[in-house]
């Protein structure tokens, strides 16, 4: 009860934020993460073209896409999840984005153009570009990269169902976005999504076994690939309404979750997202299934006053789960809470966690509390989004941000020559506007050190769910 009391005090004390400004900046971040030939309308102008020969040695064009975090590797598993979440954000909250909607759509297309390339060779799905071990030895700008840009692919013989099915989900979700904007492109995305899903399902296996020597320990799959297959089928059903995908979901998607994974959602584990996504279809038909039951359990595992709460909260009210880069949990779970509150409202359902009533308005309040904490309503009075507010992280763990820009230092900075910039205590010379870092520790303390990558590194999959949250609160600030 003490925790709940502290949390309520924090919620009441929270000041209003400029969610529109934060939304604009959160989308700018994706422009700062772009790989490849930058477009004429690029707004993050201190970034320049990079990795223009990706895939060339294999005779395939793999130029484009996003760097996942503060390094210069393209990890397609988290990139695809980021794309799915950006698409879900636009699908649910695009009407709240106003003038930022075209930029949100651009951020999706930058990813899908690349994911189409990564799935363009029949029988192969490219899972990664760049040798992460060589890359992590260097501290250099993406524009200067001289480390191996080796592409790693899964295939029929060496399968990778996680990365393949997540790419299928991303392509299917984004096809819905483009249906009203570019029907030809939408059809191309959907056709590829079907093909890649069939590949993932037919040739089952974990990419840990196929390309694990290069994807691990960075983006190992710890939850298996079954959740990605159901996730991919769910998005294909949403995009097509085809009975075969619904049958696939109902046949394979009902699980006991004895390990508590019903409350997990992120680039690796999709269970909570599956249950929330499928629950919308179920509620609209008044068909109360295990998907709804487990979506309800997710809510009860997150609400701080619930008798079955399984997450922890810092004294200042930030949600915590085990593992690094904690803000990914705060944004992803808050996104699901906000969505589920809408579904509960639409179906006129009232949810109970034991003797606690979990009203839809309470779910919104908890999600808003997490967003407000990120934007500065916390014990340090610090925004964890670069460029938002007057106090924000200055030394983020990010190569391009921490090294002089090409305009200020046109000469090449070699691999080892970047380390003095990494070790320096000076603020980063280039503001990566909109980047949300891993965040404070569970006592609300933040060191602001680029060496401390667990807390100071931004990632695309922290920002992607936040885009939807900020769009909603921009239109519903109170």
TrEMBL record:
EC number: 3.2.1.4
Catalytic activity as recorded in UniProt: Endohydrolysis of (1->4)-beta-D-glucosidic linkages in cellulose, lichenin and cereal beta-D-glucans
Source organism, top-level taxon: Eukaryota
Pfam families the UniProt entry points to: Glyco_hydro_9
One of the GO BP terms on file: cellulose catabolic process
Any GO molecular function: cellulase activity
Domain Glycoside hydrolase family: 19-470
Family to which the UniProt record says this protein belongs: Belongs to the glycosyl hydrolase 9 (cellulase E) family.
UniProt protein name: Endoglucanase
Organism in which the protein naturally occurs: Cucurbita moschata (Winter crookneck squash)
Gene from which the chain derives: LOC111435688
């Amino acid at each position: 009860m003490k925790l709940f009391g502290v949390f309520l005090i924090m919620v009441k004390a929270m000041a209003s934020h400029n969610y529109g400004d934060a939304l604009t900046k959160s989308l700018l971040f994706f422009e700062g993460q772009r790989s490849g030939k930058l477009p004429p309308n690029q707004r993050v102008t201190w970034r320049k073209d990079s990795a223009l020969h990706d895939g060339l040695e294999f005779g395939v064009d793999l130029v484009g896409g996003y760097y996942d975090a503060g390094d210069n590797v393209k990890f397609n598993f988290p990139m695809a999840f980021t794309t799915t979440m950006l698409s879900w954000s636009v699908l649910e909250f695009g009407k709240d984005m106003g003038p930022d909607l075209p930029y949100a759509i651009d951020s999706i297309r930058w990813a899908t153009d690349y994911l189409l390339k990564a799935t363009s060779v029949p029988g192969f799905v490219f899972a990664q570009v760049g040798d992460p071990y060589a890359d992590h030895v260097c501290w250099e700008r993406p524009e200067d990269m001289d480390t191996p840009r080796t592409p790693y692919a899964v295939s029929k013989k060496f399968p990778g169902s996680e990365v393949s099915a997540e790419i299928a989900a991303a392509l299917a979700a984004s096809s819905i976005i483009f249906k009203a904007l570019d029907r030809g492109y939408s059809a191309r995305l959907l056709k590829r999504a079907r093909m890649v899903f069939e590949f993932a399902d037919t040739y089952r296996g974990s990419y840990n076994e196929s390309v694990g020597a290069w994807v691990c320990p960075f983006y190992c799959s710890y939850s298996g690939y079954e959740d990605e297959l159901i996730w991919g089928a769910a998005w294909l059903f949403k995009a097509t309404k085809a009975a075969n995908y619904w049958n696939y979901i109902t046949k394979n998607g009902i699980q006991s979750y004895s390990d508590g994974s019903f409350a997990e959602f992120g680039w690796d584990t999709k269970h909570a997202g599956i249950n929330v996504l499928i629950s919308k279809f179920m509620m609209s038909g008044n068909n109360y299934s295990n998907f709804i039951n487990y979506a309800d359990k997710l809510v009860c595992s997150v609400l701080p006053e619930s008798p079955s709460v399984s997450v922890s909260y810092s004294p200042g009210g930030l949600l915590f789960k085990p593992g690094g880069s904690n803000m990914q949990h705060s944004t992803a779970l808050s996104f699901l809470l906000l969505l589920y509150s809408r579904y509960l409202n639409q179906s006129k359902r009232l949810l109970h966690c034991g003797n606690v009533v979990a009203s839809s308005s309470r779910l919104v309040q908890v999600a808003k509390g997490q967003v407000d904490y990120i934007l500065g309503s916390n014990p340090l009075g610090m925004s964890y989004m670069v460029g938002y507010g007057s106090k924000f992280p200055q030394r983020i763990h990010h190569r391009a941000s921490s090294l002089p820009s090409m305009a200020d230092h046109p000469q090449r900075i070699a691999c080892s020559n970047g380390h003095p910039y990494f070790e320096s205590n000076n603020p980063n010379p280039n503001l990566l506007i909109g980047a949300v870092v891993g965040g404070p520790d569970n006592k609300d303390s933040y060191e602001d050190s680029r060496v401390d990558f667990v807390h100071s590194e931004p990632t695309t999959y922290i920002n992607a769910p936040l885009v939807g949250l900020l769009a909603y609160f921009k239109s519903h600030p109170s």
